[in-house]
Design a protein that fits this description.
mainly beta
Length: 211
Amino acid sequence: MISFLSCNKRFSLCFTLLFCVFFGFAQNDASTLKAQIALGVNNPSSDGFVSGFEGQPLNFPTVNLGLQYMFNPNLGAKLDYGFSRMANDSNAQEFKLNYSRINLQGVYNLSNIIFISNRTGMFVHAGPGFSMVKPLNNYGENKISYLNAMAGLEFHYGLSDTMSLYFDASYIHGFAKEFNPISDGYGSFNGNVLTFTVGLSLSLSGCYYCN
């Protein structure tokens, strides 16, 4: 829990500054600036762990925090931070690790192509980023960081004119080197991750569902 809070503190100032920058671009109600927060689970790829230190196929929690700005009704961008906790499988050596990432992504609104109702929306997002892995307890020296590429799909349901409940499924591909020596991978991770989260998206400028 302490590690989780410390990770969030490291990025809180970053997102405060980014909020000010993005809010400065919100010129009128037709612009859409959103803050997003979501909670869910993660599924790390099995080949990201070394033999004897396999991780659980499903881990809790995954937390995503983001800011999204739509330049027009169809195209936008988002900057988001994700934190995931991973732990050992039942038959593996005991370990826990924190997996963090930050990504800058393009966003495309699929609602003009796939229309369900005036209160629903679908968005695809994709873009590059950076992943940071911090093993805990006995394997803290096996920290690793590497570039990633992320892509995902969001489904939104409008709860009000300014707030929506959304589900997100995302895939994060890691561009990490093999562990050499293998002992560098004890309690660590250098693979790909699937995340499934549910959260709230709050419009900070304009009324997204008014039309």
